[in-house]
Design goal:
Length: 251
């Protein structure tokens, strides 16, 4: 009887220990999944910003910095999921990009123009978010204060240049489509961007004058077209005003 009780006690204790171990492992796996999900989300958000900046920037410093942050996320995910080939491949991918930036063999594409107002708004918003990311990097000690100020100034200039050049391109398209009022609006927007900016632009005054001249020329064209459209038909203007009286005189 005592043996049976001992065996039962052993089984109960063993079962409790096994259940505890199993529960701990489940909890650890669940925590690991939550960590992976959180890091993956941060990675995807930053990757979108990196892709945008690599496409539109013409300097490598900030894209290279964003790639380093992405490499850190990739390594964290690989550490949590070491058996995943995709995690290892992601680390290799960003390591390769990091080497390209360091060696100077990899440079962003520098495409400044966008094809719509909505796309431009989205792009400028992305630049603002990147500046916020850089500020967090500074707080965490990833970059020095002077680096943050340098990179933030670069992004502000990039944002201004992109906005002005895009509106000028939009204006040319509108003129080609004979939509002069819309073209005038884009030119005025470009001029206002230059007027309001606090950035130092060497040829700022000259560019504003040129835009003002273009706007005046467009306004004159619009006014002339309106006058031409409102003018009465020349034939009807020369016709007799009293045809019955003329007929009586002819009799």
């Amino acid at each position: 009887m005592g043996i049976i009780i001992g065996v039962l006690a052993f089984l109960l204790v063993g079962g409790g220990i096994f259940s505890g171990i199993l529960y701990s492992r489940q909890q650890a796996a669940a925590m690991r999944e939550r960590q992976l999900k959180a890091i993956s989300q941060k990675y995807e958000e930053l990757k979108k910003l990196y892709d945008i900046l690599f496409l539109t920037d013409d300097q490598p410093e900030v894209p290279a910095l964003l790639n380093k942050a992405l490499l850190g996320f990739a390594r964290d995910m690989r550490k949590l999921d070491p058996k995943s080939p995709e995690r290892h491949q992601l680390v290799e991918q960003h390591s390769h990009l990091d080497a390209g930036f360091s060696e100077g063999s990899l440079r962003p594409r520098g495409e400044r123009l966008v094809n719509s107002d909505n796309a431009l708004t989205s792009l400028l918003s992305s630049y603002a978010v990147i500046v916020q990311k850089l500020q967090r990097f500074k707080v965490r000690g990833m970059i020095a204060t002077h680096q943050y100020e340098e990179y933030a100034l670069h992004l502000r200039k990039l944002s201004l240049d992109t906005e002005v050049s895009s509106h000028l391109a939009f204006a040319e398209i509108m003129i080609g489509n004979s939509e002069r009022l819309k073209a005038e609006g884009h030119l005025k927007h470009a001029r206002e961007c230059l007027k309001k900016t606090s950035l130092e632009i060497p040829d700022k005054a000259e560019r504003i004058r040129e835009l003002t001249d273009r706007i005046k020329n467009l306004e004159n064209e619009i006014a002339q077209r309106r006058q031409a459209a409102a003018a009465p038909d020349s034939t009807s203007a020369d016709a007799p005003s009293n045809p019955s009286g003329n007929a009586a005189q002819n009799q």
